[in-house]
Design goal:
Layout: E1 6-8, E2 11-13, E3 17-19, H1 28-37, E4 41-43, E5 47-48, H2 49-59, H3 69-94, E6 99-105, H4 112-120, E7 125-130, H5 143-156, E8 163-167, H6 174-183, E9 188-191, E10 198-201, E11 206-209, H7 219-232, E12 237-241, H8 247-256, E13 260-263, H9 265-270, H10 275-289, H11 309-322
Helix pairs in contact: 1-3, 2-3, 7-8, 8-10
């Protein structure tokens, strides 16, 4: 009998399919439908640091509200947070699967206080999505990675629920950062978040949005770094994100060491009804291979010799392109 149960960041999931933070998870009703469709957990639509900070700055300009700026700032601050806490509470009321709150942030400032209130509202965990591009000519190597640690440290001071760090691809050494995050209390990491995709309209001579949704071609980078990281740092949980568009990609992610996968684009493309066939295909594959649980094949294909990872990468590149003219 095949059992799809898994554990990620201390959360017990009925299966490894997590719906990632997006408009798909912006209401309790949507989250209930995702649970009914088979999702193992949901990450709520992100609360962006700028949602409060920019509004607060705007209304605090004395030329607009010379006497009421502080009052309006506090009102907006409370209103945005209240709406998010309600989303958590309503989702917990209607769903039995884990509800993971999401904060999309790039600093460790006033928003950190939200974390305690999010925990009090009933969230099962918090995913910190640290989304930022480093392009200053005065940037010191390691500043961005240290910011991750500082944000995590500040939040861990406020909450007891698991903290999951969703990382970007713009890191020199994800393995080293994951190790430091683990030492500072992170229970899980998600590899990787997706930066805004830029494109150019050559007729209008202006920047436009590139492809918003992910594609299967995004998966290999997650497979590479989960394979390497899980081989070295085993006492933290991993989830793959980006390019997980079918059951095969979910299986591949688990084989490299992931406990779960986050999906989004494939649901936008195919609807919530796509979750059940994914799970059924995973079950069939497990039965064919003789696996009764996720743990029996999790990490089966993680990196074997970390010291040879760079040599392997370079020789495979050479092997592939030397055969092509």
């Amino acid at each position: 009998m095949v059992d799809l149960k898994t554990e990620f960041a201390g959360l017990k999931l009925k299966n490894p399919i997590i719906i990632s933070s997006s408009g798909l998870t912006s209401s309790a009703e949507k989250n209930k439908r995702l649970e009914e469709a088979g999702a193992g957990a949901v990450v709520l639509k992100s609360l962006f640091e700028e949602q409060i900070m920019q509004k607060a700055k705007q209304v605090n300009e004395p030329i607009y509200y010379p006497e009421g700026g502080n009052y309006l700032t506090e009102h907006l601050y409370a209103q945005v947070l209240s709406d998010y806490l309600k989303l958590i509470q309503e989702s917990k009321k209607h769903c039995s699967i884990p509800i993971i709150a999401s904060i999309n942030c790039c600093t460790n400032k006033d928003w950190v206080e939200f974390a305690h209130k999010i925990e009090s509202a009933g969230a099962d965990a918090i995913e910190l999505n640290i989304l930022s591009i480093q392009a200053s000519p005065y940037y010191e190597c390691g500043e961005f990675e240290n910011q991750h640690i500082e944000i995590l440290r500040k939040v861990k001071e406020r909450v007891q629920i698991p903290i999951i760090m969703k990382l970007g691809t713009n890191l020199t050494n994800p393995v080293a950062l994951i190790n430091k995050l683990r030492l500072h209390g992170a229970e899980g990491v998600v590899l990787f978040n997706r930066l805004y995709q830029t494109d150019i309209d050559i007729d209008k001579l202006e920047y436009v949005s590139g492809e918003i949704l992910s594609s299967p071609s995004d998966l290999p980078i997650s497979l590479r770094w989960i394979s390497l990281s899980s081989a070295i740092i085993s006492n933290i949980d991993y989830a793959a994100s980006g390019g997980v568009h079918n059951a095969d990609s979910a299986i591949k992610s688990i084989l490299t060491g992931a406990s779960a996968v986050e999906i989004c684009s494939v649901i936008y493309k195919n609807g919530v009804q796509y979750i059940r066939p994914m799970l059924e295909t995973i079950e069939r594959w497990m039965s064919q291979k003789g696996y009764e649980s996720i743990s029996q094949f999790k990490g089966l294909l993680k990196a074997k010799d970390i010291n040879q990872a760079n040599a392997y990468e370079r020789t495979q590149f050479l092997r592939y392109f030397s055969e092509r003219e």
